[in-house]
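Appendix B. Chain record.
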Amino acid sequence: MSAAREAIAFVKEHKTTKTQVGVFKINMHIGITEGTVFFKDLKSDFFLAGRVANTLMEIADKASAGEIIVDAATRKDAEGFRFRSLKKGIWRYQGLTKRVRGISLPGKTVVGGGMPAQIISQKLDQLRAYVPDWLYKRIEMKPSFDQRDGEHRRATVIFLHFSGIPYERDPRRAAIMLRDFYSILKHEIENYGGWLNKIDVYTDSARVLVVFGFPRTFGDDEMRAVLFAREILNSTACEAINLRMGNSCWSHFCSASRHCIEA
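Structure tokens predicted for this chain:
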């Protein structure tokens, strides 16, 4: 809860960002829940899923800009915070009580500000497998990010939702299915010159965001995206997984901070 409050306060203080084409407003809303999740280290990404993760996304979807929404278990354990019931099992953060309990925090470090070069090098080595080579080199040259580092560029984005993996019922089989699916996914993305922007969870599935046209553009990125989608849908390794896809080809704000944001 303390981290969520600080994150919301930071965004409210920095509520706009300026790019080459104008000023854009930034909003944030947060959902918090607790429980056991399925976790898998994919060696180049971390992945979590399961009922608790899906519930988290359902809770987050009920929050408006600037709000923090929690489940009943989090509300019970969050001593010193006031909440208002939205519906059964879902609560909105309202403020602090006089009984709020202080917590000790490790020393804070601002990204790109004052961190010794040796520590930066050590942390980069730990993250290398989880960061694309081009982004790793970018961080080595400049370990901080600025919205002015990005650009508006035409890019094609594939939204791929997948479900049907038995995370709770059979975690061992789920790990094998996820490993095989991720292997095919990475292979085809590299084969067609795309970029795996992120893999995360949604309310009823997990989802993958793949970008064609950033950081490299080939002039036929739309075709590459369609061919990639066809390969995934026709792959025998994906037959046991429920897949659905959509794509968007438009002007996006792309930056080296590992995100491609539609503008």
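Further analysis of this model is presented in Appendix C.
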